Amino acid sequence: MHQPEDSNDSGNPTIGSVVQARLRRRQFLKASVGAAAAGLAPLPLVACVGDGAHAPRPGRAGRLALGFEAVSKSIADALVVPPGYTARVLIAVGDPLFDGVPAYRDDGDNPDYALRCGDWHDGLEYFGLSADGSPDSSATDRALLAINHEWVSPLFLHSAGPSAPPRPASEVDIETAAMGVTVVEITKDPNGRFRYLSQSPFNRRVTALTEIEIAGPLRGHPKLITRHSPSGTRTRGTVNNCGTCRTPWGTLLTGEENWAAFFARDAADAARRSEAENYALARYGRPPGAPQAYQWNTVPDGSDRYRRWNASVTGASVDGRDDYRHELHGQGYMTEIDPYDRTSVIQKRTALGRFAHEAAAFSRPRAGEPLAVYMGDDARGEYIYKYVSDSPWDPADAAAGNRMAVGAKYLDAGRLYAARFHEDGTGEWLLLERANPAVAGYDRYPFADDGDVLLHARIAADGVGATRMDRPEWSTVNPANGDVYITLTNNSSRGLGGEDGGFGVDAANPRTYEHRRQDAAPQSGNVNGHIVRLAEEDRPDSTRFRWDIYLFGAQSDADASLINLSGLTGEQDFSSPDGIRFGPGTELCWILTDDNAMTDRSNAMMLAAVPGELGDGRFLELDHGGTTVVTRIGARPQATQLKRFMVGPVDQELTGFAETPDGCALFVNVQHPGFGTPRDGALRPERYTSHWPGNMGYGPGGRLARPRSATVMITKDDGGRIGS
Questions:
Q1: CA 280, CA 300: separation in Å to the nearest integer?
Q2: How far apart are CA 614 and CA 533, in angstroms?
Q3: Nearest Cα to 348, choosing from 262, 233, 453, 261?
Q4: What is the mean pLDDT of residues 220-240?
Q5: Distances (CA, A) of 217 to 55, 414, 449, 453
Q6: What residues have CB less than 8 Å from 103, skipping those under 6 apart?
Q7: Residue 23 — pLDDT band, cuts 50, 70, 90?
Q8: Whether residue 2 has pLDDT greater than 50
Q9: Angle at Cα 355 formed by Cα 349 and Cα 356, nearest 5°?
Q10: Which strand (E) or helix (H) includes residue 88?
Q11: What is the distance between the alpha carbons of residues 24 and 17, in angstroms, rounded to a whole number?
Q12: pLDDT tens-digit readout, 529-538
């Protein structure tokens, strides 16, 4: 779930201008050829143009197939899966994780959330366990699940919903504990179905108060100094945990996304800050007086655990050791957790930069080559990033005993880049270091050192002229050929530029249009989102890449010349791609949606795709009423290559995804069902917009239950591999 943010006022080109220059050159050449031929018809508004630079590369995708019956769109308050499949709830918010914790109650009276499964299930990873409890990446009957918890639903966490500010400590303690990460053991029962174990010694809750170390270049940095950590080496908690990643050495990376929204900043704080500080805070969504999520800092007892949520200058110190002016600098990272050791120290890997992290994806590990990590910054007009490790990959590290030490080896020293998309179908990775003159000389923010560059990676990306994108979210790498897929969920700020005030269309973000729903006001911009595909020129540390657009989200009946560019049918159409993951067992590409555009026709959904190859499609020219843009699009998916696999209940989004190594069980997170329940008036069951999963028999409450985020297990009734 995205909190609206649109803080990028850098003025960076969105490559629309260079696209137009290329288009003019190409149109001139075509016109010349046409004149010579004296009889060729003019180009249509949508034209296919070949380009040898985008020839497909060999892969194995041709042997994959989708053997299930596509699921129809649904607005029912239920999970819908194909015939021959069964979905069961595995664990839901509030379920106890430790012996002695009372069972979940449907009346909102559930204290001790530090001992229960958290709320708003998001990213999800599977970590296999052998019979003796040691890591086993091939295990299919015993494992640990690591579950991210992005936000919380105070409306359902408390008996009568949340109190108005000042917030009572009892409510805030529940909400801060219900965020973070859950690690829980699962095992197959005698019927071959997974269940979670509440007595497992592996179970762990990481909350907004857990002690966490700052690792990498920002450890001990002056801008990490707080009252809690005058040395700038520690912070408390991980918040707004969105996407995840499983490292090649078997640990979890959890992405901290819209963390800035949790911190208050009073209106008078600007006068206490330097011009550079004020600019940087606003660039990260914290101008003075910005709205604050949940208002945790308003608890009146003044305890340090609540005061930390006020990022205003309140102390007299020069360096910030007597207040929490730098507290929000401790959030916004890829944070590493060893799921196999619940006593291990959690590390924030600051070398990967600070922004609104979604998921991350590693390049294919190859001996002697560095590792690349691909990441998106989920806000309107933000950037795609790549981190490259200084250390080359050593396959022996995949089974090393000290997993966090391996994490330090690869994730604490490296280089961070931002992507610029060129008009000729290539791209460039731009170095974010002071050694780059465009960073050191950027006139809107004076970077003190390279740590400051990482701390303010967004501003450094502004300085180098990276391409502003339509909310980059999850990333994944095709294990068959190394292609990188990144979802661009949508962007209401994407316009034609000029008078409409939008970013303008460009090759990597080529659509803007008006979308009408039956039950809401029209929406405009890139309403349905798309998925971009990249391939490195050579090794993971290459600074050049090639790209195209794999799929455009759209309704099947939308204008095929400007909106439904991928030619989606009723069995394939989708909107707002969010999660994306290649399954290690199924080898399919799974796409999960976070939609508010098609919800008059269907709840959020999950699709299965047989991936193509970068360059398998064509160039496309789009005419936006006189503004023409050229883009490159992947091959249109056939009915056997893309199908809707699941639709969730009402007012939810399908988020995290994991599967067993044999591909015979999928785990999917269902987030915030019933999110549209009215916040005004009494909290009564008849006003809930969803009663899932109680209405499918899970937990107390039955058909009138409070809605709950949950992790679902999906299996094929014949026990076979899913999707085939």
A1: 29
A2: 7
A3: 233
A4: 98
A5: 40, 10, 10, 10
A6: 96, 700
A7: very low
A8: no
A9: 110
A10: strand 85-92
A11: 11
A12: 999 999 999 9
